[in-house]
Amino acid sequence: MDIDLSPEELAFRDEVRAFLAEKLPEEVKHGAAMSPTVFVEPDIGQRWNAVLNEKGWLAYQWPKEVGGTGWTPTQRYIFEKECALAGAPNLTVLGLKLVAPVIYTFGTPEQKAKYLPRILSGEDYWCQGFSEPGSGSDLASLQCRATLSEDGTHYKLNGSKIWTTHAHWANKMFALVRTDASVKKQAGISFLLVDMNQPGVSVRPLLTLAGDHEVNQVFLEDAIVPVEDRIAEEGDGWKLAKFLLENERGGSCHSPKLEYDLDQIEQAAADEPDGRGGKLADDVDWKRRVAKVRLGIQSLEMIELKILSEVAKGRAPGPQTSLCKLLASNLRQDVDLLAVDLYGTAGLQLDFARPFYGDNAPEAIHSRGAQVASARYLNSRAWTIFGGTNEVQAGIIARTVLGL
């Protein structure tokens, strides 16, 4: 695997860097840095999305024929890495990176024409209706029922979805529902696009340990979905879900963002006392901890680049994406624990006022980095759960990668 960039790729990297230096608003960058949640808040994320959409770079992972950039896998990787190293917020992943590929890969021409432009413009903000009470890691056991009307024009949905990120902001939800209970559980699932702004949909907030409102429980009571908002055929939902989750687990490069956050921690350590008259950055044990995490991030990057090389050859990401998901989740928690330990008792502050950015942000104790550290650490505990738990990923790796 050749990891050296070509002259054309180096020129593209320089173009991205120049764009970020000129167009990334400082308040957006600060807002991203002070957001303790896993997903960026819409006021930050949508503003950055609009900047990229104006440039024509928002749909950088999409094929050109459906409104994307048509970039190569290497260009996409360069773009993600440079955005991460510049401190840009993550893009709105649920619409852009999860449901959009399902729509442009499996949707009808009418579905593509209706939904893809609205994802780019921000008119539609999506949430994901997969997990249910009692159906988390065993997603195939979901019970949310979709009943087709006698005239075949629409479905009625009844059931509940849980841990639904940003459902309180979303006007659309892509959902897995059971359309046939008489067949094997994986075979009776369909993929529907649900309008959240209707009487049959209600949203209840679920606050995290850190006090953030990021996830919700969604209740569906005779909610209506026109049959033209079903993606593919009835019973194809499990196939589409596997396609989507493969994108979620391996469609992004995690290592640059982890590297950026670790760099910020190392820089801050140069100003933090070690309790013995020196600076924490010079403490041997601290340096050993940082080095261990950095080596883990560099190893993850090599795996991500290996997957990139396979995608560049026209091959699917494959089950090795589970390895990326598992490693990235553990490293995310390692980085956030370092941030808490960096600030000592100041890193234990847990202010429940939100947001931590903007004119009405609460006053920080010690520093802004210390203010966000504990909340971010608590929220990142979810990394080893969402998108498939670490235990699920280990099982996939054992069966499909190691052949055990």
Automatic annotation (TrEMBL):
Positions of the Acyl-CoA oxidase/dehydrogenase middle domain: 127-215
Source organism superkingdom: Bacteria
Annotated Pfam families: Acyl-CoA_dh_1, Acyl-CoA_dh_M, Acyl-CoA_dh_N
Residue stretches making up the Acyl-CoA dehydrogenase/oxidase N-terminal domain: 6-123
Domain Acyl-CoA dehydrogenase/oxidase C-terminal residues, every copy: 235-401
The entry's keywords: FAD, Flavoprotein, Oxidoreductase
Keyword Flavoprotein attached: yes
Matches recorded under SUPFAM superfamilies: Acyl-CoA dehydrogenase C-terminal domain-like, Acyl-CoA dehydrogenase NM domain-like
CC cofactor: FAD
InterPro entries: Acyl-CoA_Oxase/DH_mid-dom, Acyl-CoA_Oxase/DH_mid-dom_sf, AcylCo_DH-like_C, AcylCo_DH/oxidase_C, AcylCoA_DH/ox_N, AcylCoA_DH/ox_N_sf, AcylCoA_DH/oxidase_NM_dom_sf, Mycobact_Acyl-CoA_DH
Sequence similarity: Belongs to the acyl-CoA dehydrogenase family.
Listed name of the protein: Acyl-CoA dehydrogenase family protein
Organism: Novosphingobium jiangmenense
